[in-house]
Design goal:
The protein has about 160 residues and is mostly beta strands. It has a single domain, classed as Jelly Rolls. It is built from no helices and 13 strands. The strands form 3 sheets. Strands 6, 8, 9, 10 and 12 form a 5-stranded antiparallel β-sheet that branches. The chain has a 4-stranded antiparallel β-sheet with strand order 1-2-3-4, with no helix packed on it. β8 and β9 form a beta hairpin. It starts with 5 loop residues before the first strand and ends with a strand.
Length: about 160
């Protein structure tokens, strides 16, 4: 299951600039990845906010929610995806995909289709995009023409850039 950030507590930032109370967000590893000050400004850095690590996949992975963008979380995101063939089949391809809404329309990134007939075959997908507040970022894979029981591992990391 993907890990996501969630509001964990409020604390006082201090008297400088009258920043007042802020809410900070952590991922499931306990790392602070972004925060909102009392003026409603969302601050953040290269914090990982969602991870997926799926081993032994033998078919397409249907559209799966990766991250629910919070009301103050609209902005730039980066995604890193990796697919590696762990058991070669005799034929077939796989494509890794990410989708989101940018506030105007649905959008997405797709890797190139790569063969499932060579063990160790590896493909990566890297991209950045703008996602709207209150939208859902999803992922999926598409396996086509697979035969001979190929298996692959799928790994994905989502970061909030601000």
């Amino acid at each position: 299951m993907p890990s996501t950030i969630q509001p964990t507590s409020q604390y006082t930032f201090g008297p400088a600039n009258n920043a007042g109370d802020i809410v900070h967000f952590t991922n499931t590893a306990g790392q602070v990845v972004s925060w909102i000050d009392s003026f409603g400004v969302h601050w953040g850095g290269l914090g990982t906010i969602a991870l997926v690590s799926l081993a032994g996949q033998t078919a397409s992975i249907g559209s799966t929610p990766l991250y629910a963008v919070p009301p103050t979380g609209g902005g730039m995101y980066a995604v890193y995806a990796d697919v590696i063939v762990t058991s070669a089949g005799s034929a077939g391809t796989v494509v890794a995909s990410i989708s989101w809404n940018n506030g105007t329309t649905a959008a997405g990134l797709d890797s190139v289709a790569f063969n499932l007939n060579t063990q160790g075959e590896q493909a990566a997908l890297l991209g950045n995009f703008m996602a709207a507040a209150n939208s859902i970022i999803t992922y999926f894979t598409t396996v086509s023409g697979a035969s001979g029981n190929p298996q692959y591992n799928f790994n994905l990391r989502l970061q909030y850039l601000g």
